[in-house]
Write a structure and sequence with these properties.
Blueprint lengths: L11 H6 L13 H6 L19 H22 L24 H8 L7 H12 L1 H4 L9 H14 L1 H14 L3 H20 L5 H21 L4 H12 L14 H18 L26 H21 L10 H14 L8 H4 L2 H26 L6 H22 L7 H8 L5 H11 L7 H19 L9 H4 L5
Length: 482
Amino acid sequence: MIHVSLVPRSCDRCYTSKERCIWAPGSLTCERCARVGHACRSKRPIKRVGRPPGGYLSSSMKRTRLGTQKSDMSAKRNKNTATTVTTTTTTTTTLAPAMVEGSIGQTLLSTIEGLGQPELDLLNRTIHQDDFTEQFVIGPSFYHGHRQKLVFHLLSSRRIVLDAYLAFALSCGDQAQVNTSYKKAASALFTLRSIQIKDHLDITSCLMLGWQLLHFVFQLGGREILQVCSQTLSLLKPHYAAGKHFETSHLSFLTSIILTETAECLMMTKLPTLKLHHAEASSHIDGCVGLCTGLLLHLYDLAAINVDMQNRSRQGQCKTKGLPDLPTKLEDVRLKIRDWKPQLQTKIFAKFTALEVAHMLCQHQIMQTAALLIIHRLQHRFGKEDGTASALAATILSQIDLTVHVTGKSPLCVDLPLIVACLEVEDDSAREQRLRSLSAIGRHSAVFCDRIKSMVMQVWTARRQGRIVFWHDIGHLLSRFS
């Protein structure tokens, strides 16, 4: 007999509305909440008959261990017959992301079999310690939700995501652990290339797999950033259609990958994989990009025009067959970006700390200014109309300086604006100092910082050689970095 605790129950919204709550197999949200874009939660007390149950932690751990044991027994039986990576989850636990409290999640990690204590310690460190969490979300208000998703997918989709989690965790350890991290990353990359997505849980598990691999690359690599982003988003794209958007609770992981890929594509003159359309994008306050979720759509359009202008330049025609009037398209995007404003909610100042709000406002202002500076350099080559470009670059750098002075740390996701601004800074030592001190990723990864420093230097070398460089020419100059 199925225990009452394992039977899916109506979410709070359907229960209150007295609507039928229908759950697809493996889904984390009911069909009604998914259709209307609501967060699907079941937080009301469970009413049970008979003897009162034991503590929540005890029952959760029992279900997790039971599911893990069953899964491991099944895996042993099928060990010699498996030929492809499937997305069958490794536990039958009914834990939902919102149910995984931080302290509970930390205890549950110890139930994962096959890991030594050093690996468990690193996983706990990268998931639960604030000094790691602050690398990925704007501030403490987002820590809890971020950790819930990490723990949930590690428990529910272990065979899909574990190697990627370990690859990043080990990359933050000593040299021996770093060496081992490459093996885990290779295994995780094979999983990413072989994964078969069948349901909603597979979608979010694939998202977490790619997200962890991306941060491994940030830590130790650099050249594979675009490959990991594009591979992940290519897998998700067929499932990212109208009416099938990702639930808002996972949006920050998606925006992180989309922004990273879009930034790389703008530098490398390539077309991004996925254009973000989300019902709540314009008003969503994101743990990664803050108030800038709605701006990602315009950045995609800007990247597409960048590619078209490169194609036109190579063909040496003012207007190329099949390409619209690009100056008109560019001006249209410029006006949209110039006039774009996030839908600020009055509750933002009550819900978030003053430092978090300062970081969000900085992100918004410098991301918008960086996009306008890119457009300026698509219209005017480097070395021409430098007054306007210098003013835009100074605005970006001074805004980051002010935010660092007020909050004590660099805002997240400012690396694209930082690179765009430093391309206008002629002094090599001043440029290097800013790249090394203001890059949020660079503070944790010297490899990443050296990469962006070399990219900027490559453009400046071409400028000093007297080459004519528009923004759409940068991709050719930086081809060795991709």
